[in-house]
Amino acid sequence: MSVALNHTIIHSRDNRESAAFLAHVLGLSVGAEAGPFIPVETANGVTLDFATIPAESITPQHYAFLLSEEEFDEAFGKIRASGAAYYADPHGKHPGEINHNDGGRGVYFTDPAGHGMEIITRPYGYQEDGAA
Q1: How much is the mean pLDDT over the chain?
Q2: Most buried residue among 35, 54, 100, 107 by CB atoms closer than 10 A?
Q3: Which long-range contacts link 15-24 to residues 24+ away (Cβ below 8 Å)?
Q4: Is the pLDDT of residue 130 over 60?
Q5: Strands 47-52 and 37-41
């Protein structure tokens, strides 16, 4: 049996708001409510189940999404259009910038619940074929 991540629960102040925000940025669909969860399924079949909990109970987490160059352009355009702050780094020291790590592009932003979201066009440690 091969092991694959199937789903994870993401705590939010408002599960519908957080699911809709991320789905909009990434060009995904919000699924039908399933009990206390609002699901957003990624292209590789991993479901992000947004659950509403009290705001003081939320511990900010980090979620990174690998996108194509075209998807990055679309998502980054939506982030900018929303007026959300974005950064080239996870610590917010480079506001209004993107990074070019590993030969691609990346940007960090925060979702409505305070989670650190990241979109990248190359996985960490990526090297072109034949590169040393």
Answers
A1: 95
A2: 107
A3: 15/50, 15/51, 15/52, 16/50, 17/112, 18/50, 18/111, 18/112, 18/113, 19/48, 19/50, 21/111, 21/112, 22/48, 22/111, 22/117, 24/78
A4: no
A5: antiparallel
Residue-range domains of the chain with CATH: 7-120 (3.10.180.10)
Q: How far apart are CA 17 and CA 14, in angstroms?
A: 5
**Please, which residues have CB within 8 angstroms of residue 120's CB and are 6 or more apart in sequence?**
64, 65, 66, 67, 72, 101, 102, 104, 105, 106
Q: DSSP assignment, residue 99? A: B
Q: How confident is the model at residue 1 (pLDDT cuts 50, 70, 90)?
A: confident
* Residue 95: strand pairing partners: 87
The model's pTM = 0.92
> What is the distance between the alpha carbons of residues 71 and 131, in angstroms, rounded to a whole number?
25
**Side chain identity at residue 31, one-letter code:** G
